[in-house]
Amino acid sequence: MNKIAVDEQEIDNLKDEFNAVTGIKNPMNDQAFMEYVHTHGISLKSLAEEDVKKTFLSLPEGISRRMLEIRCRIAQIRHFDGKKILPILNHDSRLQGLWEYYGTSAGEWNLKYLVGIETLDEIARNSGDSMLYIGDFPELKSIVLTWLLDNEFVPPGRYAHCLLESCKSAVREPGNALHCGRIKISCFSRFLKFILPSGRDIFLYDPKLGKKQDLYCQVRCGRRMMEKQISGGYLLALIEHASSRDILMSSMLNLIKNGFFPVLMTEDEILVDDNSNEDIFDDFNLVLEKRPKWSKDIPFRAVPCLGTIWKKKPDKADI
What DSSP string runs through the chain? Predict the structure, then answer.
C-alpha cells in the first residue's frame, strides 16, 4: 500500500474515532471544533496548528486531550511546507514577490489563483527531496467554449450576442428561466443569475436596461461597486472563465483528496507537491484522469508532467 493510501486510511480512522466521541464528522470543521472546545471548558487561543498542539500537550490524559491530538495529527498529515518551494522562488522574481505577499508567518504557502504567471513549466523544478508535478490542461478555454455550445460550430461573437440578448430577456421577464447553450439564465429581485454546467451559480448585481435597451449591472472595480454597461464579450469571458475554473478546481480538490498538495494554479495548469519521498507519478496521472460527472462529456485533456528546472537565460554581456 503506498503512502497516499496509508495516510488516507489513518485520516479515516481518526475521523471515525472523533465522530464516535463528539458526534462531529470532520475534526477540521473549525466552527464545530470550537464549539466542542468551549463546551468542555478548554482554553484555546486559536485554531492555528501550533496553538492546538500547545493546548493539548498542556492537558491531562483524557478524552479532551485525545480529541485535540486527533485534529493535530490530521493537520500534520495534510500539512504542506511552503519552504520546499523556496528554491523555485530564487529563480523567478514573479514568484518571490507572490511569496512575500501571500506567504504566512508559519512559512506555509497559501493556495492562490495566479493569473500573472503564464506557464508553470518555466518555473517548476525538483526541490530537494520533494518532487513537483504539473497538471496541464491545454487549450482549456477554447475547448470549454465549444462544449458550452453543445459542440455546434457557432462563432464566439454570435454566442456572445446570444448571452446578451438572453440576459436582457431575463431582466424584462423576472422569474423566467432561459437557456443559452448549456447556461441557464434567470433574473430574481436584484440579481442576474447564471447556472453553470457544474451546478455553481454566478451573479451580476442590480441588472437594469437603459433607454436604448442596453444592459447595465453593478460591477466591482477595486473595492467599489460601479455601474457598468455589460457587453456580450464581457458575458462570454465571464462564462468561459468560470467554467474553466470549475474544471481546474474539481481537479484540484480531487488531487487534495488523494494526498497531493496543489501549490499554484494558472488559467490552465496546476503545480503539485506530492509531499512524500516516493515517486508516485503514475498515481498523479490516474488522479488527473478522473473527472466529475458533469464534465465527462467535455473533451478536455489533462496532461501530467514532471517539474523541469527553470534556468535564466544568460545576458549577452555575460557570454
Answer: --HHHHHHHHHHHHHHHHHHHHS-S-TT-HHHHHHHHHHTT---S-SSHHHHHHHHHHSPSSHHHHHHHHHHHHHHHT---GGGGHHHHTT-HHHHHHHHHH--TTSPPPPEE-TT-S-GGGT---BTTB-EEEEE-TTHHHHHHHHHTTT----HHHHHHHHHHHHHHHHHSTT--EEETTEEEEEETTEEEEE-TTS-EEEEEEEEE-TTS-EEEEEEETTEEEEEEPPHHHHHHHHHHHHHHHHHHHHHHHHHHTT-EEEEE-SSEEEEE--SSS--HHHHHHHHH---GGGTT-----EEEE-----PPPPGGG-
